[in-house]
Design a protein that fits this description.
Layout (H helix, E strand, L loop, with lengths): L2 H30 L6 H7 L5 H12 L3 H9 L10
Helix pairs in contact: 2-3
Amino acid sequence: MNIARKSAAETLASNTANIRDDLRLHRARDLLTSEECSISEIAAELGYRSTSNFSRAFKTKTGKSTAGFRNSLNSGAPNPESST
């Protein structure tokens, strides 16, 4: 495989992973607004191998822990994520 093709394939794979992660994050926000599912159930539904992997990915993307995000919704605090 030449360099240009390899670079294009790597870019496509990276873009696909970013889209998948963005969709998972959007779904996670939706699920976290509901008290019906536990954080471990949400992690499993989104395809994470563990709750800690999900929590780490969520915090990396949002700057908030999953519990902190859920608590801010319940406390009536403004949610900086809702404007995106």
